[in-house]
Amino acid sequence: LFPHPTLFPGSRQRITDSYVAVGSRSMTVASASGLRVGDDVVVVRTPNQQWIDAVGMDSCTTKGTSYDTSDVDGSTCLSSTAWTPAARTMNYERKITAISGNRITVDSPVVEAMQSQFGGGAVYKYTFTGRIQKVGVENLRAESSFASATDEAHANWMVSLTSVQNAWLRNLTSVYFAQGTMRAGSGAKHITVQDSASLDHKSQITGGRRYPFDLEGATHVLVMRSFSQTGRHDFVTGGNSPGPNVFLDSRAEQSYSELGPHHRWGTGTLFDNVVHQSSSGGQQIGAYNRGNSGTGHGWSGAYQVFYNCLGDKYKVASPPNARNWVIGCRGPQREGNGEYDSFGSPVGPWSLYLQQLRDRLGDSALRNIGY
Which residues share a beta bridge with 98? Predict the structure, then answer.
């Protein structure tokens, strides 16, 4: 139903580096002869069964590779739906900015490590015929008509973004929707959502409902100065969501569930000065192994950064061979083996995203977005 990226024939090249670190913008390919500066490319992480076994997302009933650990259901294996290499392939849209021999440089960093022992990766050129761009929705309030507080025969999201780039949502308020204000799905890239609110949701309070600001495969999305009330997963990413993505200076109140990456290996998300207050006082900001939840959620995210956040509780763990960080965050409880730093005391600079933006583009870039 929607346009989608198409592989440019014959352009796929294997990444030959044994290790490409998080934050890298350069990598070596088997041959760069068919690539040019300015080409749109997809950098693909191609996991193998060794990686599935190493992160403990394999089947509990079969013996895998040498990385297969002792099976503990929901922890080091999944009895519901084991992950497969094909299902966890990650695709990152980038643009080539420089080429030196067979080494290419792209416009934004790699947000997860690629290791040859765990399948490595590849690069290919693509076309995206039909993807629209330079469009926005702003200054609107929408109310969904509903029959009861648990009615679900009405609108889900106010705005849904698919196969669009360089787009924006600004000054939007959704009221009574079953899900919320916005969802950005596959093919959505370079999106800004700002100064928007999702209020008084009407639906059952159970799985699959109330995702007010939801990134489901979108990349390079900035959600800032936004507010959610009575959501469940208020600021959230879904399975295989490729970063970088940022939630900045946003707030969730009366939340009925946790905040963070929800399932199946979302990568490269920054939660920067995000406040999460749950209706029970016991829901968490989290990134961890969700095990068999939701038919095999497993590790919800990797390379997630929670920076100067405020919440009722934190549950952040680091997957094998990856990291999740909690820096300068506050709250009464914490658990998990994630990288906790200065817990209970905010750190400087006040905003990691805004400081990096200033370092790259100067103070005028902050003024352009209202800071």
Answer: 105
Q: Are 213 and 193 in contact (CB under 8 A)?
A: yes
Q: Is 208 helix (H, G, I), strand (E, B) or coil?
A: coil
Alpha carbon 352 to chain centroid distance?
Answer: 17
DSSP one-letter string for 82-145: ---TTTT-EEEEEEEEEEETTEEEESS--SS-EEGGGT-EEEEEEE-TT-EEEEEEEEEEEE--
Give dist(CA 276, CA 279) in Å, integer.
10
Using left for φ > 0, alpha for ψ between -120 and 50, and beta otherwise, residue 41 falls in beta
Amino acid identity of residue 204, one-letter, is: Q
pLDDT tens figures, 50-70 = 999 999 999 998 887 889 988
Q: Is the preceding peptide bond at 5 cis, omega within 30 degrees of 0?
A: no
DSSP 5-57: -EEPTT--EEB--SEE-TT--EEEBS--TT--TT-EEEEEE---HHHHHHTT-
Asked if the 6-127 domain carries CATH number 2.40.30, the reply is: yes
Contacts of 368 (CB under 8 A, 6+ apart): none
Six token digits for residue 97: 């900015």
Alpha-carbon distance of 292 to 239, in angstroms, equals 14
Amino acid (one-letter) located at 31: S
Model confidence over 23-54: pLDDT tens digits? 999 999 999 999 999 999 999 999 999 999 99
Distance CA 35, CA 168 (A): 31
- C-beta of residue 236 within 8 angstroms of C-beta of residue 214: yes
Largest distance between two CA atoms of the chain = 64
By CB neighbour count within 10 A (0-12 exposed, 13-18 middle, 19+ buried), where does 257 fall? buried
Distance CA 371, CA 365 (A): 9
pLDDT in tens, 227-253: 999 999 999 999 999 999 999 999 999
Whether 2 shows a pLDDT value over 90: the answer reads: no
